[in-house]
Amino acid sequence: MRVFAASLAEMWSSARKRNRLSPDEATAELLLARRHLGRHEPASQRTLELVLAAAAGPATERELARETAAVTAFLAALPEPEPARRRGPRRLPVLAVAFVLAALVALCGTAEAGALPAPLQRLAHQAINAPAPSPAMRVPRPSADVTPGPGATGSRAAPGSSGPSQESRTGKPSANPKPTHTSDSQGNGNGQPTASDSARPTATDNGKGNGGTPGQGGNPSDHPTGNNGNGNGNGNGNGQN
Amino acid sequence: MLVGDFPEVLRRAAAGDASAFARLWRDTHPPLLRYLWVSAGDAAEDVAAEVWLEVARRIGSFRGGEHEFRGWLFTMARRKMIDRHRYEARRPVSPTGDGELLDRPAADDTVTAALEYISTETALALIATLPRDQAEIIVLRVVVGLDASAVAQIVGKSPGAVRVAAHRGLRTLRERVAGATVTSPGRGGVTL
Q1: How many CB atoms lie within 10 A of CB B53?
Q2: Are strands B181-182 and B190-191 parallel, antiparallel or unpaired?
């Protein structure tokens, strides 16, 4: 306990010594703060005071000699005045208009080239007389592919799908939902127009389909047998059932 | 020090008023030049010009009072000076004559000479004989008039370290002027 108390007292006294400035340090603080020392101070301290006072003396002619050059450099280095800075916001509408114009020109060029998606191309056709969308650009329908029908040999129609859906696979333009061979089923057996119509490939076609069911003499059967898109398309049936 | 006029002078200078800037320059340039002379030697004028150019570019964004302005200015000056030292270290110049020795008086020359008239230049030359960090701190405190904490921020040290360096520098200076006869303008000579 005594040892602890002694060490505590020692720490206390050393802290007090640390916080208290020595006479030299106190004088040094006075000198650094540019305060005059008393006459009781040693001569060396007073000499030092003179040196420091001379170092902090008033400005000399030599030090102020470059004032004109400094002011000129200041004026030259100043940032641009405020009105010049307002150019930024003014540029924004001009840039926006230029961007919109460039986008319009690009859109028109694409429309004239016929490279737009079909709906847009159709719109462009109506609006600016651009070329109409070609049939090859039609959007594929999500249904009606992949699984071949059970009753159609080689056909890709969905199971259970009837004739018209299979007919749509044969390359007939989708704008005419009527199956091309319905006339055959009715015994008219014409087949010629259907062949010519269905000869056009569609986007849903596999690329080879160019014909509908040949008019095989007005076959009443409504099965588009063998209609996998490889049909002749030159239906030469005479429609005589 | 501009004291009460400082905010108005600063505002006008930031707006591009040449006379306000001139007033600011007249008030601050001499201590800046002295600080740089002690720290950077012969490059003081060039570094000071770079500092004022930087001030001109950035004065519009400065916020604060006169003490803060001085701290800002001398922080910039110190950075420019350090850049200058680095540049000179990369590209050392080897003088062919004795000019470098003649430019700055050695400690012995300064102290042993009987100084009949101590000018600002002589006093600064005497301070410049100290180690650089001590000389820098003494000039910032005595010539520029900053307190220990402001100097500590500029030189990147603690206020305690700044005090210690300043006291050591003053002790060294006192030892060096001992025995010399110093006469200050307007005061009687002090003979040691």
Answers
A1: 16
A2: antiparallel
Q: Do residue A52 and residue B53 have CB atoms under 8 angstroms apart?
A: no
Contacts B123 to A, Cβ<8 Å: 51-52, 54-55, 57
Whole-angstrom distance, CA of residue A203 vs CA of residue A135: 7
Tens of pLDDT, residues A75-85: 998 876 655 55
Chain A residues touching residue B25 (CB < 8 angstroms): 67, 70-71, 74
Kindly report the number of other CB atoms within 10 A of residue A176's CB atom: 13
Q: Is the ipTM of this complex over 0.95?
A: no
| Residues of chain B contacting residue A79, judged by C-beta atoms under 8 Å apart | 57, 60
Q: Global pTM?
A: 0.54
In this predicted model, what pLDDT tens digit does every residue of B78-110 receive, in sequence order?
Answer: 999 999 888 888 887 766 655 555 555 555 455
Q: Quick one: DSSP state of residue A31?
A: H
Q: CB of B35 within 8 Å of any CB in chain A?
A: no
Shortest distance, CA B125 to any CA of chain A (angstroms): 9
In this structure, are residues A79 and B30 in contact, taking their beta carbons and an 8 Å threshold? Answer: no
The structure tokens listed for A23 are: 């006479």
Please state, in angstroms and rounded to a whole number, the distance separating the CA atoms of residues B41 and A13. Answer: 45
A102-106, A174-178, B72-76: segment of lowest average pLDDT? A174-178
H or E element in which residue B182 lies: strand B181-182
- The DSSP bridge partners found for residue B190 are B182
CA atoms of A125 and A19, how far apart (whole Å): 93
The first and second tokens of residue B8, run together, are 């108005």
CB contact at 8 A, A237 and A194: no
Chain A to chain B Cβ contacts (< 8 Å):
124
